[in-house]
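Hi support team,

I'm filing this because I wasn't sure whether my run with heme C finished correctly. The job status page said complete, but I'd like someone to confirm that the output block is well-formed before I use it downstream. Pasting the exact inputs I used:
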Amino acid sequence: MFSMVRKSALLLTAALGAAALFAADEADPKVERGKYLVNEVAKCQDCHTPRMMDTSDLIKSAWLKGAALDFTPVNAPPNWRSKSPDITSSSPIWSRWGEDGMVKFLETGKNPRGHAADPPMPAYNLSHDDAVAVVAYLKSLK
Ligand code: HEC
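And here is everything the job wrote out:
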């Protein structure tokens, strides 16, 4: 009996903890600002989210998980990339670059190797605060 009570108390604590975490995530103004910049201003999803084969709608469950691009310019430069990488928290980019590397990439347009990404990835010159907000949002995506 005692252990059952303790177990349900533990479960309740875990549930409350998860709810609190979720609420904190939702309310984090940095994440919200990053979400706005990514989804409404830069529209990273146009290239980084895969689409349904039949309707071309973006697949919400794979938001920013990397995609095959469905366009190529007539005169594509030789280094044109037809695929974009995963940029959510599960991307290997985070272990390779770290959060600072990603912030600098968004501020300067240059990755930690000192190069711009290949086209059509834009070279962004975001302010530090905007870059930090974008990173906070990307890290919040599973
Ligand atoms: C017009 C299409 C397009 C848009 C918009 C776009 N990307 Fe990309 N992105 C790409 C492609 C294609 C690549 C692969 C380039 C390469 O491999 O060098 C890429 C690569 C990247 C990389 C890895 C770069 C590297 O050097 O390995 C990161 C990080 C990234 N994008 C983040 C973003 C973020 C954040 C946004 C929005 C703020 C965004 N991208 C918007 C197409 C796009």
